[in-house]
Amino acid sequence: MTDEQAWIEAFRNAGEGGRRARWECAYLAHREAVFALGRSVLGDPSGAEDVLQETYLAAWRYGDRFRGAGSLRGWILRIAANLSRRALLRERARRELIRPLLRPEQEREGAPEPATELLAKERAVAVRSALARLPAEHRMAVSVSALGGLSTEEMAAILGCPPGTVWSRVHHAKKKLAHALRGLQPGEGT
Description:
Helix content is 73%, strand content 0%. With 190 residues, it is mostly helical. Helix 2 (16-42) crosses helix 7. The radius of gyration is 19 Å and the shape is globular. Residues 111-117 have low confidence and may be disordered.
């Protein structure tokens, strides 16, 4: 019996307190990966926190549906990827609805830091901006791949596509990122 199968069996046989303790352990083990995925997809720490909370609420609610076919980490990240995708779509729809109502100076409030900020901030802004311009499926693929520790099959399950498509999307995403960031060399600004 694998650790995952033992976890499932213990979860199913535990009372309410035991289940809570098991989810706390799962939360502690995977929260950083869930947050990183949410942040890289949404580009927003606040949105990533929401994804983190919603992921664990969904995992708690539907924990008995986890069958152990893949890893618990992969299952939890699949939930996070789906929630991140939905949040991204909701945010885009919201922006499109309010854009006509904004004055031009309000649209610029979220613009990148001015050139006088630290080089590290400039680079971070440039990378986040380049990530945001990627198609959603490429951004998701490169974000999941950057988490590390997942097999190709687990990444494919999280992304809901065949394994070959995962690497195709990662390849295209990296190529687009390299092109977008080509002028950003160590010691240079954006």
